[in-house]
């Protein structure tokens, strides 16, 4: 056991070993480095099926970030978990939270970190990508009505900064403005458009029970 390995990592490692005995995840375990942090990027071994250990690791890291609910005036208890809903007649998973609010409601940065990309897409409309301070996760804000004044790529945002305003740009229906908010675990290349979705709901809704760690 390497010196300095955290209790969480040990727990994860032993959980992973257990999974291997259960079969199927040998590849992931073989990629676990023997040594110290930085933590292994299990995303590299993603097979489409999230290992429970990975979900626990995502949650542990992001819970530490104490994310701010990104829409002004919305109480955590008002959130609905829309992560697992289908979209486009069930052909793709939603993998995000929709937070309804009147058009023009301020949208806050959930965390400190760099604004990496201002991007306009057909489905997302006016969107913004922010990395967490460790550049391990991306926060994605979509359907914005407009950006906050003076925003530019590369800006260091602080938790609570207004980044834009709720709208219905992209494929949102005009009579149902909302913020589409997503979190992605970035790959090793740290590309803002690529990652594995993490459900923001348990991280923004303190009323929810904490997901069980493996
Ligand atoms: Zn959405």
UniProtKB/TrEMBL annotation:
One Gene Ontology MF term: hydrolase activity
M23ase beta-sheet core domain span: 93-200
One family name in Pfam for this protein: Peptidase_M23
EC number: 3.4.-.-
Enzyme class: hydrolase
Keywords in alphabetical order: Hydrolase, Metal-binding, Metalloprotease, Protease, Zinc
Cofactor(s) for this UniProt protein: Zn(2+)
Lineage top rank: taxon: Bacteria
Name recorded for this polypeptide: M23 family metallopeptidase
Organism field: Azohydromonas lata
